[in-house]
C-alpha cells in the first residue's frame, strides 16, 4: 500500500488538511497532526524565511510522535523566496513537501536528499505525467468543486485516468467535507482526501469571524467559479463578493475583461477580501476545534464503512 511509506506514519484517517493561503498557521497544523491527519501550510504564509524557520521548529517539536506535517511550496518563478525556503525545509527535514504551479527537478532532488516525500498538485493528466517524470513521489488531484484555484474535472474522471499509469500516493481535493466523502475517495481508487474548506471554520484557523460565519451559512449555490480576481479560475463565496461592493452576477468572463475588472476593483483582493471556499461548504454547521472536526470525520468515515459492509 502506498500509505505504508514512513512519511504517512501515525495517521488515524487518510486526510491531508489542505494548505490554505492566509488561513493555515502553526496552531491549525499542530492541531490537525495531533488529531491524526496531515496538517499542511503554505511556506509563504510565514511572512519571511526566518519566520518560516521558527514555525517549523515549533511545529516539529509539538507534533513529534503524531501524524506528519507538510509544507506547500509555490514553484513559479514569481516566488523569489523558493531557494531560501527550500533550504530551511531541508534543514528541518520536513516530512512532506507539496509543490504547486510548476514542476522543478532540483526541488524534488533537494527533498529526496534528506528522505522527504514530494506530492504535486495537478488538475489534468498532462500535469500529472510531467510531475512524475521529473520526480514527484505522489499526486494531489485537485478536482471540480475544490476551493481556491480548483480544476474542472470530475474526480471520477481524473482519478481513473491517473490510476491507469500511476499506483503511488494519490489524494483527491474537491468538495470533501464529510467522512463519507473521504471514504469515497478510496472507493474510487485514491489513497485519501485533501480537505481544506472544512478547516476554515476551525477555531485555530487564521480566518476572521466574518469569513467563518460565511462558511457556516453558505451552501454550494453560494460558490462561484471565476477568473475575475486573479486571472486564474477559482472558487469564491458570492456573499464575500457582494460584501466587497461587487455584483457576483456581473463578473467578467474573458481574460481581457478580467484584467480590466481587477484594475477597477483594486483594493478588494482575492483571499483577503474575496473569500475562497469549495463546494462542500454545506456540510459546515459550526466553528469547532480542529480536533473535533477530525473526530467527526472519523465517526462519519467508520459509519460509512459499516453501512457498506451491511
Task: Please outline what is shown here.
With 310 residues, this protein is α/β, with parallel strands linked by helices. It has helices spanning 26-35, 49-63, 82-91, 105-113, 125-134, 155-163, 179-187, 197-200, 209-217, 238-243, 255-264, 290-309, and strands spanning 15-17, 39-42, 69-74, 96-100, 117-122, 138-142, 170-173, 192-195, 223-226, 234-237.
SSE arrangement:
Layout: E1 15-17, H1 26-35, E2 39-42, H2 49-63, E3 69-74, H3 82-91, E4 96-100, H4 105-113, E5 117-122, H5 125-134, E6 138-142, H6 155-163, E7 170-173, H7 179-187, E8 192-195, H8 197-200, H9 209-217, E9 223-226, E10 234-237, H10 238-243, H11 255-264, H12 290-309
Parallel strand pairs: 1-8, 2-3, 3-4, 4-5, 5-6, 6-7, 7-8
Antiparallel strand pairs: 9-10
Helix pairs in contact: 1-2, 1-12, 2-3, 3-4, 7-12
Protein model, in words:
The protein is of the alpha/beta class and about 300 residues long. It folds into two domains: about 1-205 and about 285-310, Aldolase class I (TIM Barrel), CATH 3.20.20; about 220-265, no CATH class. Helices cover about 40% and strands about 15% of the residues. The protein has twelve helices and ten strands. It has helices at about 25-35, 50-65, 80-90, 105-115, 125-135, 155-165, 180-185, 195-200, 210-215, 240-245, 255-265, 290-310; strands at about 15, 40, 70-75, 95-100, 115-120, 140, 170-175, 190-195, 225, 235. The strands form two sheets. Strands 1-8-7-6-5-4-3-2 form an eight-stranded parallel sheet. Strands 9-10 form a two-stranded antiparallel sheet. α2 (about 50-65) links the parallel β2 (about 40) and β3. It is globular, with a radius of gyration of 18 Å. It starts with 14 loop residues before the first strand and ends with a helix.
Amino acid at each position: 500500500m502506498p500509505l505504508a511509506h514512513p512519511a504517512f506514519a501515525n495517521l488515524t484517517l487518510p486526510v491531508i488538511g489542505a494548505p490554505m493561503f492566509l488561513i493555515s498557521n502553526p496552531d491549525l497544523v499542530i492541531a490537525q497532526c495531533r488529531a491524526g491527519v496531515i496538517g499542511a501550510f503554505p511556506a509563504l504564509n510565514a511572512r519571511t524565511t526566518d519566520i518560516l524557520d521558527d514555525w517549523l521548529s515549533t511545529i516539529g517539536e509539538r507534533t513529534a510522535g503524531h501524524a506528519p506535517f507538510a509544507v506547500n511550496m509555490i514553484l513559479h518563478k514569481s516566488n523569489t523566496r523558493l531557494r531560501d525556503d527550500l533550504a530551511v525545509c531541508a534543514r528541518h527535514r520536513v516530512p512532506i513537501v507539496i509543490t504547486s504551479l510548476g514542476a522543478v527537478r532540483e526541488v524534488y532532488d533537494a527533498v529526496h536528499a534528506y528522505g522527504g516525500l514530494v506530492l504535486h498538485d495537478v488538475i489534468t493528466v498532462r500535469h500529472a505525467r510531467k510531475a512524475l517524470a521529473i520526480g514527484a513521489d505522489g499526486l494531489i488531484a485537485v478536482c471540480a468543486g475544490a476551493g481556491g484555484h480548483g480544476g474542472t474535472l470530475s474526480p471520477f474522471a481524473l482519478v481513473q485516468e491517473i490510476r491507469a499509469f500511476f499506483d503511488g500516493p494519490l489524494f483527491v481535493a474537491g468538495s470533501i467535507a464529510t467522512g463519507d466523502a473521504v471514504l469515497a475517495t478510496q472507493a474510487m481508487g485514491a489513497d485519501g482526501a485533501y480537505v481544506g474548506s472544512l478547516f476554515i471554520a476551525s477555531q485555530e484557523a487564521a480566518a476572521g469571524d466574518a469569513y467563518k460565519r460565511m462558511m457556516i451559512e453558505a451552501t454550494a449555490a453560494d460558490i462561484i467559479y471565476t477568473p475575475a480576481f486573479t486571472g486564474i479560475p477559482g472558487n469564491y463565496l458570492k456573499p464575500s463578493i457582494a460584501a466587497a461592493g461587487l455584483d457576483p452576477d456581473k463578473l467578467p468572463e474573458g481574460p481581457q475583461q478580467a484584467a480590466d475588472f481587477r484594475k477597477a476593483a483594486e483594493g478588494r483582493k482575492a483571499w483577503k477580501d474575496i473569500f475562497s471556499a469549495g463546494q462542500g461548504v454545506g456540510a459546515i454547521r459550526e466553528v469547532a476545534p480542529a480536533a473535533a472536526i477530525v473526530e467527526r470525520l472519523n465517526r462519519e468515515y467508520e459509519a460509512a464503512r459499516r453501512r457498506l459492509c451491511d
